[in-house]
Structure formats: C-alpha cells, structure tokens
Amino acid sequence: MRKIAILGSGSYFPGEPIENDELMELTKISFDKEKIENVIGIKKRHIAKLRNIDETTADFAEKASLNAIKSAKINTEEIDLIIVATDTPEYISPATSILVQGRLQGYQSNTIVFDVAASCASFVTAFDTAVRMMKSNQSIRKALVVGVYNMTRYVRDEDAFGWSIFADGAGAIVIGDSNNINIDSKEDLPFSDYIDSEFISDGTQWNFIGVYAGGTRKIITKEILDSKNYGLELIQRLPPDRNIKLWPSLVESLCKKSNVKLDEVDYFIFTQINKSVIIEVMKILNQPIEKAIMVMDKYGYTGSACVPTAFDEAIKERKIKRGDKILFCASGAGLAVGANIFIY
To answer: At what angle do helices 57-72 and 96-105 cross, to 10 degrees?
Structure first.
C-alpha cells in the first residue's frame, strides 16, 4: 500500500497581531479580558479587516499554500489535487479551491479541485479525504490541503463574543509519497505514513451557531439586513462541556482502531477554541499537558485553520520532528467532529 506523508507545511496570518486592549479600542466593544486570556487562552490575534488589509479567504489560502510548497521544496505543477477546507469561502460559487488553483498554477490543468465544508472540522476531513484519494489513485503525485478561516467578515459590529474569539488565518500541508520527504540523507529517512481517522456527526445540532443567511433557505434581502439577521448568529448557547465529552472518547476510539496506545502519541493538536478545555481533555486522557500543542494565545481561534497552523508552528519551533506520532482532533458547529492519526 502506498505510504503517504506530509512533505511540507505553511501558514499565513494577515497584518500585525492585535492584543485584547487594542481589539476593544478598534471595535468599540468590551469583553471579559481576564476570562479570554486565562480561561480561553487568547491574548492576540490577526484580523485583516481591522488592519485595513484588503485580503480575504482566497488570499490567506494562497499565501499559506505558497509557504507549504516552499517547505516541501516542490513545484506547483507537481500538485494534482487541491482541497480547500473552510466554511468561510471566498464565494458561494465558484469554489475557493478553484481560485487557489488558478493563482498557484496559472493555467488549465488536470488538477482535481474542490472545497470541504464541515464547519471547523473541515481540515481534518479534507486531510483524510486527500490521503485516501492518493492511496487509491497512483496518478496523484502531490496534494495540497489548505485550512482557511475568515469568520471575522461575518462578525457584526456589536458582537463582543465574535470579536473576542474569532480571527483570520490559513494553514496548508503538501502530502505525497513518503519516499519523497526532502531530507539531506535518504539513509536517515524515517518511517512516515497516515494511519487512520475517526468521525462523528450529529445534524440535529445544526441550529446552535453558524452563518445562516446567504444560502438558498435564507437569501440576503433588504429586510434581512435591516433586521440584522445575518452574519455569525448564535441561536443557542453551546454546551460548555461538549468537547470535554466528545474528544476523549473519539481519541481513544481512534487509537484503539489504529492499534496505537495513547502513550505512544507524541503530540495532540485539538481545535484551538479553549485552553481550559484542552487541559481538561488531556487530564481525562491521562496525558501530560506538554504533549498538547496550543497556539490560541498568539493567533486566536482560526476555525478550519487552527489545526494546520498549530502543526506548522510546532514544526517551526522544532517540537514536532520526523517519526513522531501526531493526532489531530477537531470539532465544528452542526455538529461535525473528526480526528486523524499519522506518523510525521
């Protein structure tokens, strides 16, 4: 069976970081700074709109992709599959992945392109999809998977919750045959491969939080705009312990399915939504907190981008190294939850 590995990674965040005090000044809203910093864990973030930067989803995705391609030391023409993972697309149609292909390759090609929208579980879903397509299709040489988020474009001016939590960014990975890993000596080539995945969904929870206006059910009209029933809408308060209940069982199930002991996992990367939740989950799993990568203090909550950007950050900081077993776990509104386990 073809062994698939991550060949390179990259990320992108627009503009200079915005700390909590400056965020309140820029947005003219107030929030509980102590809770945001000490419980949620967010101290700063990047928001293009507030820095007057004319960039949106496709721009973030393009720049993160170029960084991942550079990291993998490949040419754009080697990419035969591009998946953009997001629930904040550039347009409803065409797909953001089509725009990314055009910007990166600049010509008509046989590249497969499509978007994956599974809320904030989009990236882990797209990662699994890309690997399985490559394992069954030998003609796909390299794949680019991009997790990108621009939910701040949907946050209304008076939404203190939205402004304090959400941020902009993108993270990308290039995947390909594990024997294409670019290292100095092939004699030192580590064993790398994708191991398995596990998913949970519950569509009965669709009406908690989301962007409900703009689709076919609720098209944008003057009445919708005047009533302010658009953008990011929190219809019901999310249960605060939902991920605490979901993540440990999903992680344990995936490890059992993969014949990997929890202690054998070198690093866990969870959705970067709440530091205190990740700490509690690691306690339940009986794993040291040092094995959990957390970057929300620097980048806020970047939805579909948070897992690949945290992964890229850990590589840059030399925490994650070749041969490490990594477990991704992400959840999003709707409800969609997914996890991947692989050897980097």
So the answer is: 50
Measured between its terminal Cα atoms, the distance across the chain in Å is 17
- Give the burial string for 169-204 (b: 16+ CB within 10 Å, else e): bbbbbbbbbbebbeeeeeeeeeebebbbbbbbeeee
**What tokens does 127 get?**
């990662």
The angle that helices 122-136 and 306-316 make with each other, rounded to 10 degrees, is: 80
Q: What dihedral do alpha carbons 249, 204, 231, 300 form, nearest 10°? A: 0
- Percent of the chain scored above 70 by pLDDT? 98
Instruction: Assess whether pLDDT exceeds 90 at residue 236.
Output: no
Check residue 186 and give its pLDDT: 55
Other CB atoms closer than 10 Å to residue 231's CB: what's the count?
18
Q: What is the pTM of this model?
A: 0.96
Nearest alpha-carbon partner for 125 in 329, 342, 267, 327: 329
Is the pLDDT higher at 238 or at 146?
146
**pLDDT at position 85 over 80:** yes
CB 310 within 8 A of CB 294: yes
Residue 319 to residues 86, 274, 296, Cα–Cα distance (Å) = 27, 21, 17
Q: What average pLDDT does this structure show over 33-59? A: 97
What is the spatial distance between Cα 184 and Cα 170, in angstroms, rounded to a whole number? 28
Gap between the Cα atoms of 97 and 145, Å rounded: 10
Q: What is the pLDDT of residue 240?
A: 81
In order of start, what are the domains of the chain with their CATH numbers? 4-180 (3.40.47.10), 190-203+237-343 (3.40.47.10), 207-234 (no CATH)
Cβ atoms within 10 A of the Cβ of 99, count?
20
Q: Pick from 14, 17, 116: which is nearest to 330 by CA?
A: 116
The CA distance from 130 to 143, in Å, is 7
Angle at Cα 281 formed by Cα 275 and Cα 284, nearest 5°? 145
| Tokens 């989009």 -> residue | 122
Helix (H, G, I), strand (E, B) or coil at 287: coil
Determine the Cα–Cα distance for residues 192 and 322; give it in Å rounded to an integer: 8
